[in-house]
Predict the 3D structure of the following.
Amino acid sequence: MEIKTFADLIEWTRLWHLHLSDCLNGCAVKHQDERAKMLLGYIAGHELEIGQIVTEFEKQADVNTLNTRVYDYVDHKPVKFHQSCDGHYSTLTPDQICREIFEFHDQVIALYDNLSGKAEIVEAKELADALLAMEQHEAKRLATQIGRIDEG
């Protein structure tokens, strides 16, 4: 997907969270380790929630802001993620799963942070800041919940 506007970027973010959710759910069923299955299922649900939160950003953002071009404001480094769901997560240990999920979240956070720092239009900066804060909050919430799973 080519990202030219805030609307494109938000849609890309939403689709990736939903794709990740579907992928993790599919891998949970295939995984041999019960702890990993539980972890994959939990993270899949969390990613689905994030996708729904991002949908609200799409609905509530100003149309002019959504149409603001982002091409000049973001580094052109793609976020690295498994493009197809080939069962990759069904072979990983819980620690490996967490590491990959948090690497993905860190890349999305860095993308929004970069955009926020370069946005010149006030409304665009506010939207980037709100998306950044949401991604940071959800990553922290996920880390906290995973920590509780590990303690349990």
